[in-house]
Design a protein that fits this description.
- There is one protein chain.
- This protein is an alpha+beta fold.
- It has 3 domains: about 60 residues, no CATH class; about 90 residues, no CATH class; about 110 residues.
- About 40% of the residues lie in helices and about 15% in strands.
- It is built from 11 helices and 10 strands.
- The strands form 2 sheets. Strands 4, 5, 6, 7, 8 and 10 form a 6-stranded mixed sheet that branches.
- It is elongated and about 100 Å long.
- The C terminus is likely disordered.
Amino acid sequence: MSEPPPNRDVIPETLLEYDQWLCWRAEQRNGKSTKIPIDPTSGEFASTTDPETWADFKTASEQVQFGQEDGLGFVFTDADPIVGVDLDDCRNAETGRPEEWAKDVIETLDSFTEVSPSGTGYHVLVDGSLPRGRNRKGDLELYETARFFTVTADHVHGTPEAIKAREEELAAIYNEYLAPDEPERSASDSNIDDERTTRSLEDSELLQKAKNAVNGEKFEALYRGDTSGYESHSEADMALCSLLAFWTGGDARQMNRLFRDSGLMREKWDERHFADGSTYGEKTIERAIAGTSEFYEPTPDTTKSSAGSKKSVSESPTCDFRHRESLDRIEELEERLSEVLDEKAGLEAKLDEERARRNALEAELEAERDSSGSFFSWR
């Protein structure tokens, strides 16, 4: 018998707003345990692309409580803003301790987090959208649409009880853990960075420009240490670093120097939080730069590059980079196809069962007709 489903009081309110609930049942396929989606209303196989096989939370919960299902699931669709972050094989089920990389993901996203059904992983739910590219690498996977999450509501202490908007943080996690490795940089690319560095502003001039900008009030408030409007101090740190990344042109050393002079500076900045020896501050700066797509240019002259300095597409190292992205996408689609084929096999097996049941009923009816005919034959 399955465990009772979680009470709606411990389910994030955002999830309860959508009738995108289903049940799941554990089955063995090819020697591996697989969670099969089940329609809460009919008890038949559900599909993550067919809303007719989903239901509201109450219906799904009652099916788990009184039926044969093993748990609840929530389907991600384009109609909702929710992204599911799945962290596998990263939690000690006995001690409850996470691995360092998992701890980093959970702390960065800082949104509703639960322990997975196996007890060896986590689910983080955030409000946001996925960057383009692959959505899985190693034990980390991100879901946004046409997939379902098992929901345990086994809340991780210290994380928010609600689903929070985490667009920038999600992009940072993607860049850190999922984005393909950058191609090797050519000499001309390095020259561009060198040119940017030589044109960077002095600290005092940079601060003055940042405070006079359209979003200057936000910058000034953060720089003096005001964290109001942010869910956590860490979120405020990331917000300030993102602004500094723009104004410094992605100069990590200048960003570090300026941040240390800000009101947000604290001891945690120099604490080593990562397996590679990086400090909290170093990783925050790295992620802020990775998540910044445009940088401030002190001089408006953009005509210095000559035609001779341009690289053709075939000569650019980004070709290999894009090729790897394509291969990653193919791998992702092949995995999804495998899941769909498994689902199809399950539906075909169910169809065969129904056909066998129908044949048995027809044979039984035929036997009853024959029996009735012989009983009244004396007439």
